[in-house]
Amino acid sequence: MEEKNIVKFKKEEFAIREYVRDSLGKGKVSKVRIEYTPVGEKIIIATNRPGMIIGRGGEKIKELTRILKLRFGLENPNIEIDEIKKPEFDAQLMADDIALSVERFGPLKFKVIAYRTLQRIMGAGALGAEIRLSGKLPGARAKNWRFAQGYMIKTGDSAKVVDKAQAVAQTRPGTIGVKVRILSPEAVLTDKIVIDEEFLKRIRENEQKPEETKNKIRKNPRSKK
């Protein structure tokens, strides 16, 4: 019985997150987190466009709060905005941006869109990025394209720091799936080796001293007795 309640609870949470994301529009919301407090439910929306989410005078937030109460039975939902300063390091925002661009300009431009997004991510300072497109893509080659640059981890504990997301583009020929992986410069890598430049400099200086001593001896040889 307890397992059924947990499954039902998780389904309701998923439905709330999907509704918030769909109602606010693709490309505006990265993640939706739900936290439970003694005074009610805290819904945290991560976005790079807080003004469009809040609306003039907070009208959009008020309307969303009202709908969450009526539709999902939340007692006291409190919506908070978590502004994303660097959208280039957010996989969901980049995946949505690619999907929207493919829908707008058509699947014939998918290579240009993917390469441009990849350059934007790497230009912002990311350690690595990978973009995968699959589905109704034009061309005689395989219907699965991969665009990658930089360093990317896919296995082990370090792979957990890679931000992953997916989106769907609905085009006239059919559906195109988008998957994005981003390794941001703030990611903490367990296998990263940091070299102390000051210590390395001292080692090089110590290696040069014996050579300098040998050169002095050669220039000033002892006189034979």
Provide a descriptive summary of the structure in words:
The chain has 225 residues and is of the alpha+beta class. It folds into two domains: 2-85, 2-Layer Sandwich (GMP Synthetase, Chain A, domain 3), CATH 3.30.300.20; 88-183, Ribosomal protein S3 C-terminal domain. It contains six helices and seven strands. The chain has helices at 2-24, 50-54, 59-72, 91-105, 110-123, 197-219, and strands spanning 31-37, 40-47, 77-83, 128-135, 144-150, 163-170, 175-183. The strands form two sheets. A four-stranded antiparallel beta sheet has the order 5-4-7-6, with helices on one face. A hairpin with an 8-residue loop joins strand 4 and strand 5. The longest helix is centred in the N-terminal third of the chain and has 23 residues, at 2-24. It is globular, with a radius of gyration of 27 Å. The N and C termini lie far apart (103 Å).
Oligomer: single chain
Q: Give the end-to-end Cα distance, rounded to a whole number of Å.
A: 103 Å
CATH homologous superfamily descriptor of the largest domain: Ribosomal protein S3, C-terminal domain
Residue runs with pLDDT of under 50 for 5 or more positions: none
Instruction: Please provide the count of β strands.
Output: 7
Domain module count: 2
Please name the CATH topology of the largest domain. Answer: Ribosomal protein S3 C-terminal domain
Strand content: 15-25%
CATH-derived architecture of the largest domain:
2-Layer Sandwich
Tell me the Rg in angstroms: 27 Å
Spatial ordering of strands, largest sheet:
5-4-7-6
* Main β sheet profile: 4 strands, antiparallel
**Shape type:** globular
How are helices and strands ordered from N to C? HEEHHEHHEEEEH
Give me the number of helical elements.
6
Q: What class would the helix/strand composition place it in? A: alpha+beta
Overall CATH class of the largest domain: Alpha Beta
Helix content: 40-55%
Query: Overall pLDDT, averaged?
Result: 85
